[in-house]
Amino acid sequence: MIALLMRDLRLAIRAGGGFGLGLAFFLIVVTLVPFGVGPEGAILSRIAAGILWLGALLACLLSLDRIFALDFEDGSLDLLATAPIPLEAVVTMKALAHWITTGLPLVLAAPLFAVLLHLPTPAYFWLEVSLLLGTPALSVLGTFGAALTVGLKRGGLLLSLLVLPLYVPTLIFGAELVRRGGEGMAVQVPLAMLAGITAATIALVPFASAAAIRVNLR
Amino acid sequence: MSLLSVENLTVSRGGLAVLEGVTFSLQAGRALVLRGPNGIGKTTLLRTLAGLQPPLAGSVSMPGEAMAYAAHADGLKATLSVRENLAFWAAIYETQTVEQALDQMNLRGLEGRAAHSLSAGQKRRLGLARLLVTGRPIWVLDEPTVSLDAASVALFASAVRAHLDTGGAALMATHIDLGLEEAEVLDLAPFKARPPEEGGHKGAFDHDFDGAFL
């Protein structure tokens, strides 16, 4: 299982692996917003939490279709499905590799990008907490969409349509956590909900994704 | 000792039965070559045996964790080197036979090259070397000799023979003669599925509407 994780990470950083694409996309989204809504600090700091979360979500979405499609094309998904490790473990490791190459860089870079949007100072800590807790759910839910669309030609758009609604709870509670944290309000409820959603998706979604892959490989 | 036995197996492609009543058994140390025209269902049969799709009827029995499957595609990662590709599969199957596999498939001189810079035949040799590192006794091979030259086919045949000599077994779909005198040939044409109105097996669509969506 560790070998699979290491292979996926190694593939991501080699030529054409797409490492850093999500981060660059995130940066562009965040820098475009002030052009669109104007440079006034008051407006920007009001919407910063939402924009940062939305940007993270879209950046994550960008690389989802690669999770299984590349392995499907070169035949290694068939071989992994017949390998001695369970497909649920394959899904989990691939979600983890996706998170390390997409989610983790976003978490690390978000405070820098938040400066561009005048995020209120007390909110920085909660931005980090919310992204750290929320982005794993984005990767895991993404495996489900990627598994459903794995055999389809140009399934990327369908994948977005399938996955984005599943991201709604994480987006709501993630952005809410940052907003409340920034305004010094009680954060227990969105914090607990965000963590709970992530825990539940990590526990349940790999089984659904593995089942979807099995059906698609028939 | 029978490693693999298949009884009265009906396999389907896209919900329609393509082969029915397939019955054979494979002993340790034996190879079985599947023959039949294109579209008869060789790949479908092999994928069913590999567990990638369920059979419509019949049974397959073999010891658990005994089978290694090699499909049309080799499952190589283009940006990984030959050695990295093999080491990955060796780690997945928890074996330590990368060195022997490199030697046996004559890949020693290529071990540091990225897989995308290999020729089609070299890729195929690497794909077959993957079988060697699985350490599994039953090989299920789909067209293993595609794009191999005569020397590589001989290399492959000797790898299969070495595998059979150590108590393994091989089931392969191929059109060319490997020069394996111990290989038996199974012609799949007599097992071609009859249409339901002639008493053949009904497709998934006919008796299980939901099956069409699975």
Automatic annotation (TrEMBL), chain A:
<dbReference type="Pfam" id="PF03379">
    <property type="entry name" value="CcmB"/>
</dbReference>
<protein>
    <recommendedName>
        <fullName>Heme exporter protein B</fullName>
    </recommendedName>
</protein>
<feature type="transmembrane region" description="Helical">
    <location>
        <begin position="157"/>
        <end position="175"/>
    </location>
</feature>
<feature type="transmembrane region" description="Helical">
    <location>
        <begin position="43"/>
        <end position="64"/>
    </location>
</feature>
<comment type="similarity">
    <text>Belongs to the CcmB/CycW/HelB family.</text>
</comment>
<keyword id="KW-1133">Transmembrane helix</keyword>
<dbReference type="InterPro" id="IPR026031">
    <property type="entry name" value="Cyt_c_CcmB_bac"/>
</dbReference>
<comment type="function">
    <text>Required for the export of heme to the periplasm for the biogenesis of c-type cytochromes.</text>
</comment>
<feature type="transmembrane region" description="Helical">
    <location>
        <begin position="123"/>
        <end position="150"/>
    </location>
</feature>
<keyword id="KW-0813">Transport</keyword>
<dbReference type="GO" id="GO:1903607">
    <property type="term" value="P:cytochrome c biosynthetic process"/>
</dbReference>
<feature type="transmembrane region" description="Helical">
    <location>
        <begin position="187"/>
        <end position="213"/>
    </location>
</feature>
<keyword id="KW-0472">Membrane</keyword>
<dbReference type="InterPro" id="IPR003544">
    <property type="entry name" value="Cyt_c_biogenesis_CcmB"/>
</dbReference>
<dbReference type="GO" id="GO:0015232">
    <property type="term" value="F:heme transmembrane transporter activity"/>
</dbReference>
<dbReference type="GO" id="GO:0017004">
    <property type="term" value="P:cytochrome complex assembly"/>
</dbReference>
<keyword id="KW-0812">Transmembrane</keyword>
<keyword id="KW-0201">Cytochrome c-type biogenesis</keyword>
<keyword id="KW-0997">Cell inner membrane</keyword>
<keyword id="KW-1003">Cell membrane</keyword>
<feature type="transmembrane region" description="Helical">
    <location>
        <begin position="96"/>
        <end position="117"/>
    </location>
</feature>
<dbReference type="GO" id="GO:0005886">
    <property type="term" value="C:plasma membrane"/>
</dbReference>
Automatic annotation (TrEMBL), chain B:
<dbReference type="GO" id="GO:0022857">
    <property type="term" value="F:transmembrane transporter activity"/>
</dbReference>
<dbReference type="InterPro" id="IPR005895">
    <property type="entry name" value="ABC_transptr_haem_export_CcmA"/>
</dbReference>
<dbReference type="GO" id="GO:0005524">
    <property type="term" value="F:ATP binding"/>
</dbReference>
<keyword id="KW-0472">Membrane</keyword>
<feature type="domain" description="ABC transporter">
    <location>
        <begin position="4"/>
        <end position="214"/>
    </location>
</feature>
<protein>
    <submittedName>
        <fullName>Heme exporter protein A</fullName>
    </submittedName>
</protein>
<dbReference type="InterPro" id="IPR003593">
    <property type="entry name" value="AAA+_ATPase"/>
</dbReference>
<dbReference type="InterPro" id="IPR003439">
    <property type="entry name" value="ABC_transporter-like_ATP-bd"/>
</dbReference>
<keyword id="KW-0067">ATP-binding</keyword>
<keyword id="KW-0813">Transport</keyword>
<dbReference type="InterPro" id="IPR027417">
    <property type="entry name" value="P-loop_NTPase"/>
</dbReference>
<dbReference type="GO" id="GO:0016887">
    <property type="term" value="F:ATP hydrolysis activity"/>
</dbReference>
<keyword id="KW-1278">Translocase</keyword>
<keyword id="KW-0547">Nucleotide-binding</keyword>
<dbReference type="InterPro" id="IPR017871">
    <property type="entry name" value="ABC_transporter-like_CS"/>
</dbReference>
<dbReference type="Pfam" id="PF00005">
    <property type="entry name" value="ABC_tran"/>
</dbReference>
<keyword id="KW-0201">Cytochrome c-type biogenesis</keyword>
<dbReference type="GO" id="GO:0017004">
    <property type="term" value="P:cytochrome complex assembly"/>
</dbReference>
